[in-house]
Amino acid sequence: MAEGGIEHSVSDTEGVPRNSSLHSDHSGNYVEKTSVEVCYIMTHLGYGEEIRRRRILKHREKDSIRNARRVTNRPYMITAGSKAEGLSFFYESDHDFLFILNVVLCVEVGVDLHTIPDDIEVYRMNTRVYPGHCRMLLERQGSTRLDVIQKALYDDGKGHTMLSSGLFVDEFAKTKSLGVLRELAGPPVPRTINGRINMDYVSAIPCQCPSIMQRWAERPRNWPTPDVVRKVVSLGSFVTPVGFKESEYKFLEWRICFNTGETELVNNLSTTQAKLYVLLKMIVKDRLNPKKKEVTSYVLKNIILWQAESNSPTLFQENKLFHWLHDAMRTLKTAIAFTQLPYYMIPDRNLMAACGLQDEQGVNG
């Protein structure tokens, strides 16, 4: 496994995490039987494989219809988060969308600008900031510039024009065509449609960072398959207007993201792994109940992805659901205790850094 990943304690005989409460002589069979029953119940509650795949397909179809109506060179939207993963019902949670500005491109140092169409505005990544983030320096102006970009430009006084994430979010929040603005609590711009459907729009700029993708693709792993790895690489990356919380210049920083690739990864989890992810989110929401979203569903997703990569897919059987749930909870407990959890795509980035976690809040062992 890659340096900076998560190590798991695996039994030599069973291939599952060991815990005395789960593996006593008489309780092991009961735990496995209960695991199968919970999987069965979750299928009938709408978290089975068939309905999950149907939800994924329907959201993709909606995206295609929506984007077919857009004007050429205008931003397009794709469904993200649990809706794109088929793991939540229509009214169960907010609808997350990526609002992609396709007339702008952020590129890594070393990318040849001559391979990029002349009408695309290009920004060069400066990654001398907190891992997983960058600053965007104007490299080449495009033939078309959106107002939101124009109003977010920042002169650093040293001859460089930068794209400010802070100014960008302020301008993007003024967009009136996305519904009624709710309270702005972070980079996603929250809107309410028809008074009942809550939607979060995250603006994103396509990004070419081949060296980062290569490091992820080449590390040793048990999962996913090489074909899925290639698919994730082909989906590319984005930058979103989120600076590192503790940075003095966070208003100039952007976060490097792999939304579509991560959706592809979650969509390739097995049925048992998908149910495990849903259960973990339920437990954290209802029992841990983070006060200020110190532990987000995104943290839980990364725990599940690390777990999947670190173990053979054959180990994730229905009768082992509770074993792997306990393993994931143990990883979460460690992440909270040490405020340390590496980002699955860029392990140098700590997802628990500057999370605002309160010392008194913990997880019951």
From TrEMBL:
Residues 276-355 form the Mab-21-like HhH/H2TH-like domain. Residues 1-28 are annotated as: Disordered. InterPro entries: Mab-21_HhH/H2TH-like, MAB21L/cGLR. Residues 1-11 have a biased composition (Basic and acidic residues). SMART domains: Mab-21. It comes from the Eukaryota. This is Mab-21-like HhH/H2TH-like domain-containing protein.
